[in-house]
TrEMBL record:
Keywords: Transferase. InterPro entries: PTS_EIIB-like_sf (IPR036095), PTS_EIIB_2 (IPR013011), PTS_EIIB_2/3 (IPR003501). Residues 1-92 form the PTS EIIB type-2 domain. The lineage of its organism: Bacteria, Bacillati, Bacillota, Bacilli, Bacillales. It comes from Alkalihalobacillus trypoxylicola. This is PTS EIIB type-2 domain-containing protein. One of its GO terms (biological process) is phosphoenolpyruvate-dependent sugar phosphotransferase system. The keyword Transferase applies. One of its GO terms (molecular function) is protein-N(PI)-phosphohistidine-sugar phosphotransferase activity.
Length: 96
């Protein structure tokens, strides 16, 4: 499984979300490759899930083979956990 976290610069916000996501996936025993990237170099061709701030996700070209999680709260790990669990692909990963 491959997850991309996209933000405007590929540093601050995406790194914060990546750290939170790694902790959550570890709790769930889910193995995934997680990369953080900036919106200008992002390519959604080879990702299962793309996560980012709502305004960033809304600006991306949507690919039908990719799941998108648009976050309105970038700081709260419980909110991130809730958004992940509301995604059907993540539910499958967690229940394997």
């Amino acid at each position: 499984m491959k997850i991309s976290i996209v933000c405007s610069s590929g540093l601050g916000t995406s790194l914060l979300i990546k750290i939170q996501l790694e902790r959550i996936l570890k709790e769930w025993n889910v193995d995934a490759t997680i990369i953080n990237t900036d919106v200008s170099t992002f390519n959604s061709e080879h990702h299962d899930i793309v996560i980012g701030a709502k305004q960033i996700i809304d600006s991306l070209e949507i690919k039908h083979h990719t799941e998108y999680i648009a976050l309105e709260n970038l700081i709260d790990p419980d909110y991130l956990r809730q958004q992940l669990l509301s995604n059907e692909v993540v539910k499958i990963w967690v229940n394997q």
